[in-house]
Amino acid sequence: LPSLSLPSSMHLIQVDSVQRWMEDLKLMTDCECMCILQSKPISIEKEEQNELILSSQYNTCDNLQLLLKRAWIISTELTRIAQKLEKNRWQRVHSMTVRVNCHVRSMMNEYNTVTRSSPEEMHQLEKLLVDKCSEFTAFTERCLQTEDEEILKSMKSCVNETLTTVAQYFGQLIELVLTQEAQSLLRQIELSGSLCVTESAISSLFSLAQEGAHLCRIIAKEGGVVALFKICRQDCFRCLYPQTLRTLASICCVEEGMHQLEKVDGILCLADILTDTSHSEATHAEAAAVIAQITSPHLTFTQHLSNFLENMEEIVTALVKLCQEASSGEVFLLASAALANITFFDTMACEILLQLNAVKILLAACSDKCIVDTPYSRDQVVTILANMSVLDQCASEIIQGNGVQLLMEMLFEKCSSGNAAEAAACERVQQKSAVTLARLSRDPEVAEAAVKLSCIPRLIKLCRSPTERNNSDSVLVACLAALRRLAIMSPDGLEDSDFQQLVKPRLVDSFLLCTNMEESFV
């Protein structure tokens, strides 16, 4: 069975199993009976009225969620059928085929009930899928009626081929349905002059984008980025800017979205929004979120953002100002994340940050626990400091702002919950603070301050104690590098055993020693 390119709500898999079962129960109960009932109107005379009542019960998001849940069930069932087929469990294969047949019909009936019109291509695909599902069910039923192994073996290849075709038709139909939904929402955004209708359409488009990268590609392909930037260029929609920018940030996680952004001079529009002081803080924060998204170092398709360099200085200036004036931790996080990504994007950004006294502003923000209140925010700050620390002038800025003390505190970053994302953020904070110390300690004044603050004992403990660094190898390597740099400046700060094991050998040998070491608090 080929892999289906389905934009299904895969996050559903991660929820509690009982909750998952409860959600699916209404879609899976007596679907054979429901399928027949949904195919017939209760009253011919009142058909039009019934249609209106049904349509009014759901909005676009409800319809879409129902469709995606049904699609997720069908794709899961198709995968299970392939597994049972491999084991020649024909009874199970047939019963599951009947169930898929009913789910497919129910899904189409549900969608057609709330959709006024569908293109001819969709009707053709629906017919092909229904016919192939019926053929599939008939095939598996015949397989139940024979016990001849040779006949079953020859029929198995036909069943496999039919299953593959059903999966292909199903994937194409879902793709077409989602494309039609995206087109419908974008038409509303482009043609409606109503604030209420536009807001509703953007909200639905945002929900659609949250369903995954595949949906974002569809939206971008259908002109979603173009339509949203058009909203951001109209003063009459100013109150919708935050919501519109949030949707853009979601769509621009895919290459198609980035290409569209460049075509409509999206960078220039974002720069204008960020530098326009008449906009609200919420608008500035969401614009920063788009910048953070499109400059993410994890993306491999940011090289074509040539316009970014032309506008980088004014964008960086606006982001530093937003960090300085942030009224909440969330606003600071978005602005600092954008700055952190930009420092990866181009080294000139670090020089601009130095000229803007960004080190002083960031260090001051870290002393305000209401603003820098999570490991995620500290991760952004220390990323900026680590990237800036390659510049010689950075050391004096760090010393003046009591930055060495902050880096020392970051070496003690610990996860306060069992959350995996938070634990990973804490590891990054530890690693980058050690990297920053290693880079800055080429300056004797920084090294002396670090030694006075007892950085060496803390680095040794992080090297020797796996639990202190959450068993992170990247933290270990960074701490070994920082320790070696400080040991050059202050060899008296280490005991002989620490020097012999952690400093004198090659770094790789010390690394292997520490990774195989039983926890020690020496």
Automatic annotation (TrEMBL):
<dbReference type="GO" id="GO:0000132">
    <property type="term" value="P:establishment of mitotic spindle orientation"/>
</dbReference>
<dbReference type="Pfam" id="PF16748">
    <property type="entry name" value="INSC_LBD"/>
</dbReference>
<dbReference type="GO" id="GO:0009786">
    <property type="term" value="P:regulation of asymmetric cell division"/>
</dbReference>
<dbReference type="InterPro" id="IPR038205">
    <property type="entry name" value="INSC_LBD_sf"/>
</dbReference>
<dbReference type="InterPro" id="IPR045789">
    <property type="entry name" value="Insc_C"/>
</dbReference>
<dbReference type="GO" id="GO:0008093">
    <property type="term" value="F:cytoskeletal anchor activity"/>
</dbReference>
<dbReference type="InterPro" id="IPR011989">
    <property type="entry name" value="ARM-like"/>
</dbReference>
<dbReference type="InterPro" id="IPR000225">
    <property type="entry name" value="Armadillo"/>
</dbReference>
<dbReference type="Pfam" id="PF19427">
    <property type="entry name" value="Insc_C"/>
</dbReference>
<dbReference type="InterPro" id="IPR031938">
    <property type="entry name" value="INSC_LBD"/>
</dbReference>
<dbReference type="InterPro" id="IPR016024">
    <property type="entry name" value="ARM-type_fold"/>
</dbReference>
<feature type="domain" description="Protein inscuteable homologue LGN-binding">
    <location>
        <begin position="13"/>
        <end position="57"/>
    </location>
</feature>
<dbReference type="GO" id="GO:0045176">
    <property type="term" value="P:apical protein localization"/>
</dbReference>
<dbReference type="GO" id="GO:0008356">
    <property type="term" value="P:asymmetric cell division"/>
</dbReference>
<protein>
    <submittedName>
        <fullName>INSC protein</fullName>
    </submittedName>
</protein>
<feature type="domain" description="Protein inscuteable homologue C-terminal">
    <location>
        <begin position="70"/>
        <end position="522"/>
    </location>
</feature>
<dbReference type="GO" id="GO:0045179">
    <property type="term" value="C:apical cortex"/>
</dbReference>
<dbReference type="InterPro" id="IPR039921">
    <property type="entry name" value="Inscuteable"/>
</dbReference>
